[in-house]
Amino acid sequence: MELQKMNGHCKNEGFDGLDALAEHEEFLPHKSGGKKEIHFTDFEGKTSFGMSVFNLSNAIMGSGILGLAFAMSNTGVILFIILLVFIAILSAYSIHLLLKSAGVIGIRAYEQLGNRAFGTKGKILAAFVITVHNVGAMSSYLFIVKSELPLVIQAFLGKQENTGEWFLDGNYLVIIVSIVIILPLALMKQLGYLGYTSGFSLTCMVFFLISVIYKKFNITCPLEDRHQNALPNDTDVHSDLNGTEHVCEAKLFTINSQTAYTIPILAFAFVCHPEVLPIYTELRDATKKRMQKVANISILAMFTMYLLTALFGYLTFFGAVEPELLHTYSKVDALDVLILCVRLAVLVAVTLTVPVVLFPIRRAVLQTIWPDKPFHWAKHIGIAFGLIVIVNILVIFVPSIRDIFGLIGATSAPSLIFILPGIFYLRIVPSEQEPLLSRPKIQAACFAALGFIFMVMSLSFIIIDWVTGQSRSGGGH
Ligand SMILES: NC(=O)C[C@H](N)C(=O)O
Fold first, then answer.
1. What's the gap in Å between 199 CA and the centre of ligand 1?
2. CA atoms within 13 A on the CB side of 249
3. What are the BP-aspect GO terms (predicted)?
4. Is 371 inside a domain boundary?
5. Is any ligand 1 atom within 6 A of the Cβ of residue 347?
6. What is the rounded distance in angstroms from the CA atom of residue 256 to the CA atom of residue 254?
7. For 267-284, how does the pLDDT look when each residue is reduced to its tens digit (9 = 90+)?
8. Ligand 1 within 6 A of 268 CB?
9. 137 ligand 1 Cβ < 6 A
10. Is the CB of 62 inside a 6 Å radius of any atom of ligand 1?
11. Domain annotation covers residue 374
12. What distance in angstroms lies between residue 349's CA and the mean position of ligand 1's atoms?
């Protein structure tokens, strides 16, 4: 999932130190003007091409996959595919901008690009956006705990329904999991082996995808208790009145009040950009071209997984699919063993990911507020504790994971994918190399502007949706 985790080993084995060096930027021989793309930095990467693809795929894959079927139900199959292709291509282009900017001076972290482009302000801006994004990602992971753990406990107790005891209440369970598992892990000085478990979450999501495909042929639509439990999306409410068969029809194009969440959900699902430069640094024989290939293959692979999950998830539940796909299966059979296994796997994966996502936030906070200060336990513990409390409060009060995907996907995700790479590129690539009116720079400027338009549009639509109050028909919990 959100894989700062991939570079766990970078972080653990002195990456912080290297980062501190990068602060001063002097550790790199400036290779400006050199035509040949030799080593990206003086740091010899050791990770193979295949492993880098795996790491970057892990960085892309996360809770976002659970929201895609919902997105498809609000756009229709064709429009969804068009948007998915569009965001995937733009995401790859954004990586091209990051790599090219980084190549100019050999930077190895997203924040450092900000520093290079706009000085301390740029660094703080990048750190801030990454912090907001990771807090959002942590919230989405804990939200999955809130919605799935009660179902797992319920299944172990053999209950078909939630009978309301405290141990079946997601809010209590989130707090317990945070105190018992996440906090101790977050207090470790280094992530250690946890940084290496990244492959586990990707495996879980492959397992999830296979189950989604299998279940499509196993579950008949309409669901029997659909009316009590899973409200269809609002357009379907109307067609539902004319007969249930409309609910079980795949729409090719559709637009409703929930369509506003589509681009944010897709943008969220493709964010991996803060991880690109560390992976680049670690890549063996690192050249920009080689790293772009790593990025393109990873994006293509995750694109395929996303498309299949969305398609089969949607074709299972049609209009009744919820913002968090896995949760929708509880409407069929709460005791289903396959789904129980998927739930457990996804739960373990997301729970272990939370501390991994927390580490970079803490690092960003520490570097921004107390740069150049040595390690201090009180700060280390205090920040972790504070972050976990904030995320818990968010998760308890947020009614649906859709709101997390929507807000984060409409603000920090377009900033990380479009706006920041675009403007960093404009500032970092010297005008002797590319004048401001050259095609690449104009493209980069349009790209940043596009991100800004996405952001304003998505935010406005989401706020309108909240204000008009129709949103709850989207299947919040
Ligand atoms: N890396 C992230 O920020 C989110 C990730 N793309 C996800 O789908 O969860």
1. 15
2. 13
3. L-histidine transmembrane transport; serine transport
4. no
5. no
6. 7
7. 999 999 988 998 898 888
8. yes
9. yes
10. yes
11. no
12. 13
What residues form DSSP beta bridges with 249? none
Decide: 152 and 343 in contact? Cβ < 8 Å. Answer: yes
pLDDT in the model for residue 73: 93
Tokens of 67: 């929201």
- Which domain CATH number covers 58? 1.20.1740
Considering the domain boundaries, does residue 13 fall inside one? no
Q: Is 2 in the pocket of ligand 1 (CB under 6 A)?
A: yes
- The Å distance, Cα 308 to ligand 1 centre, comes to 17
- The C-alpha angle 16, 20, 24, rounded to 5 degrees, equals 160
Q: pLDDT tens digits for 424-469?
A: 999 999 999 889 899 999 999 999 999 999 999 999 999 998 888 7
For residue 197, the model assigns a pLDDT of: 59
Confirm or reject: Cβ of 144 under 6 Å from ligand 1.
no
Per-residue pLDDT reduced to its tens digit, 31-52: 333 344 445 555 677 888 998 8
Task: Say if residue 396 is exposed, middle or buried (CB neighbours under 10 Å; 0-12, 13-18, 19+).
Answer: middle
CA distances from 354 to 101, 176, 334, 470 (A): 30, 14, 26, 31
The boundaries of the domain holding residue 219 are 40-178+191-352+397-467
| Closest approach atom of ligand 1 to CA 134 | 3
In a domain, 385, yes or no: no
Q: Which two tokens stand for residue 410?
A: 């409409």
